[in-house]
């Protein structure tokens, strides 16, 4: 029996949410068909978001057997099935590759992992929501957040609600939503600044790199913004294995690390007299 939820008393229709979208709606509405009423002129987007689901999470809406656009006006008696994104549903709905991101204040660890994998990811814990939406629109970035209200902003075209709470789990989750394994370019960006690393001659680093490191390594890279120096240190293999575990090659012959055009043997961060990962030195 369909459950009834009253909002307004004009137009009555039925909803059923599928998959992960059930986590957004009230518990009593999960995995069941329920009835709502809405005012005349309401769109599918308006009602879906009123029920708790950000429009950025919706991959497909069916009215009966017909696909319904999010901006379609709702009619009395409609029965709507709302589905999350799948790989096929993403086609044409996200920015053209390479994918670029902007992460909110709660996802600093994920932002660093994305940069480690070579994904241009803006992050600043002082970003206001309006600034995040503006950057996403101007630069065709995907917003990453755990704030569903941010994803409901009308001006936001591309976004994803991150469910996991730990950075490694968040990156693995993101890899299931987007084809990250196909576009890997690991160790190409500064973990702190997000700027592209540039090759630098060892002789120019005499004042910044310990002599024993210059003797053991021939290739160095430097961030042009913060001047941090990177090389293939002892933690590089562990960092690479970490990424490969979190973003394994996809079944459809995604290149993964074997085909990734990384910075040759990608760099590990520099810390004087020790090689501690993810703590580069100016």
Overall description:
- This protein is of the alpha/beta class and 282 residues long.
- The chain has 3 domains: 3-84, Beta-grasp domain (Ubiquitin-like (UB roll), Roll); 94-178, Rossmann fold (3-Layer(aba) Sandwich), CATH 3.40.50; 185-239 and 247-282.
- It has helices at residues 44-50, 108-116, 129-139, 148-151, 167-177, 211-216, 236-246, 256-259; strands spanning 3-5, 11-17, 34-38, 58-63, 66-67, 79-84, 101-103, 121-123, 142-145, 159-161, 198-200, 220-222, 229-231, 268-269.
- The chain starts with a strand and ends in a 13-residue tail after the last strand.
Task: Name the features.
single chain; 8 helices; 3 domains; Rossmann fold; elongated; alpha/beta; Ubiquitin-like (UB roll); six-stranded mixed sheet; disordered C terminus; 282 residues
Can you summarize this structure?
The protein has 282 residues and is of the alpha/beta class. The protein contains eight helices and 14 strands. The chain starts with a strand and ends in a 13-residue tail after the last strand.
Topology:
Blueprint (H helix, E strand, L loop, with lengths): L2 E3 L5 E7 L16 E5 L5 H7 L7 E6 L2 E2 L11 E6 L16 E3 L4 H9 L4 E3 L5 H11 L2 E4 L2 H4 L7 E3 L5 H11 L20 E3 L10 H6 L3 E3 L6 E3 L4 H11 L9 H4 L8 E2 L13
Parallel strand pairs: 1-3, 2-6, 7-8, 7-9, 9-10
Antiparallel strand pairs: 2-3, 4-5, 4-6, 11-12, 12-13, 13-14
Helix pairs in contact: 2-5
